[in-house]
Amino acid sequence: MNKQRWLSQNFFVFFITWGVFLPYWTGWLVQDKGLSITSASLIMGFGLVARGIATMFVFPIASKYMSSQTVVLVLTIISLIVTVLYIPVTSFGMLFVVTIIFNAVYPTLLPAIESTASSLVQQSGVNYGKSRSYGSLGFIISVLIISMLTGYFGEGAILWSMMVGLCLMLLIRFFPSPAELLVKPTKKDRRENLSLRDLWKVKSFPIVLLMVILLQGAHASYYNYGYIYLQELGVNSFYIGMIINIAVIFEIIYFSKAEIFKNWKPSSLLLLAAIGSTLRWVLVFLFPNVWVFIFSQSLHALSFGVAHFAFISYLTKNLPKQQLPNAQGVYSAFALSWSTAVLTLIGGYLYEISSGLAFLGMIICTIPAIVIIILTRKRFGY
């Protein structure tokens, strides 16, 4: 079996669904379900809290009792079932409940797939950046398709597109998988498995985690309000998809060449990401027009791509394979969920005052990150 191809295909298919969820879900709640921006932000914020709890606790525990392949299969099936529940729901209360459940299940697929990737990198020497670039490609294709579908059929097409994507994910689960991902943990493995508490004993882990919490959380306004912001600037729905894809194109370019940076220290990569992220949000605030926003999209390669690669590189070089699910769960919970949840609420408040201010507010994370990296990189040796 070509494990590189297998990982690339799995990243590609998952990120087709992620391209529906990440840029469009808040906008879909506003425009198809009739919620206000504040109400949708509240629902998505609490959804991120649920997502963090699931990825930090439920996913690592499930990984101790089920094979990696089974974990992904179960999460995919439940995600598809919950998505169907959205169809009849219209009230705020029911949308809140369904979104909480959906966020507790579907986004957990991300650390599950990332964990399989880390295992294949450690055990089989798979090139992470190369396979991850196919995920970004899937994201681009998804956003383009959604932008065309919403242009013709309206925002209702977003939910149906998610269902189709999850069905595709379910289908590939029945294809042959790498043998190491089919192994079910034994009782001995569970006894020898390292706990979450052991992660904090790794001297540099807490500080590296703090950096990615700040840097990934700083994307909250972009993820939740970028689509609405571009509409406010008068951009047609079809072109919004193209503009969102510019960020992912630069992400693909970076991931496809990421091995060039494999000898860089994580601290150097994180510093580069923090500087790029700060510049990105300041530009969007200072120049509220489409062309500057388009240019700022190129900085996604730094603000997201470099920060993410830095953390994955740190994990594969510094942690044993038994700790990978725990580390991925903590990363997804704190950096990709809870920090984003808090900053989504802050961003929503700022957006009501001024749309540009929601983006500028994200430097509350990036500037402290720059300072902390400079002050701690030598002391903690990361």
UniProtKB/TrEMBL annotation:
<protein>
    <submittedName>
        <fullName>MFS transporter</fullName>
    </submittedName>
</protein>
<feature type="transmembrane region" description="Helical">
    <location>
        <begin position="328"/>
        <end position="351"/>
    </location>
</feature>
<feature type="transmembrane region" description="Helical">
    <location>
        <begin position="357"/>
        <end position="376"/>
    </location>
</feature>
<keyword id="KW-1133">Transmembrane helix</keyword>
<feature type="transmembrane region" description="Helical">
    <location>
        <begin position="293"/>
        <end position="316"/>
    </location>
</feature>
<keyword id="KW-0472">Membrane</keyword>
<feature type="transmembrane region" description="Helical">
    <location>
        <begin position="237"/>
        <end position="256"/>
    </location>
</feature>
<feature type="transmembrane region" description="Helical">
    <location>
        <begin position="37"/>
        <end position="59"/>
    </location>
</feature>
<dbReference type="InterPro" id="IPR024989">
    <property type="entry name" value="MFS_assoc_dom"/>
</dbReference>
<feature type="transmembrane region" description="Helical">
    <location>
        <begin position="12"/>
        <end position="31"/>
    </location>
</feature>
<feature type="transmembrane region" description="Helical">
    <location>
        <begin position="95"/>
        <end position="113"/>
    </location>
</feature>
<feature type="domain" description="Major facilitator superfamily associated">
    <location>
        <begin position="6"/>
        <end position="355"/>
    </location>
</feature>
<feature type="transmembrane region" description="Helical">
    <location>
        <begin position="71"/>
        <end position="89"/>
    </location>
</feature>
<keyword id="KW-0997">Cell inner membrane</keyword>
<feature type="transmembrane region" description="Helical">
    <location>
        <begin position="159"/>
        <end position="183"/>
    </location>
</feature>
<keyword id="KW-0812">Transmembrane</keyword>
<feature type="transmembrane region" description="Helical">
    <location>
        <begin position="268"/>
        <end position="287"/>
    </location>
</feature>
<feature type="transmembrane region" description="Helical">
    <location>
        <begin position="134"/>
        <end position="153"/>
    </location>
</feature>
<keyword id="KW-1003">Cell membrane</keyword>
<keyword id="KW-0813">Transport</keyword>
<dbReference type="InterPro" id="IPR026032">
    <property type="entry name" value="HcaT-like"/>
</dbReference>
<feature type="transmembrane region" description="Helical">
    <location>
        <begin position="204"/>
        <end position="225"/>
    </location>
</feature>
<dbReference type="Pfam" id="PF12832">
    <property type="entry name" value="MFS_1_like"/>
</dbReference>
<dbReference type="InterPro" id="IPR036259">
    <property type="entry name" value="MFS_trans_sf"/>
</dbReference>
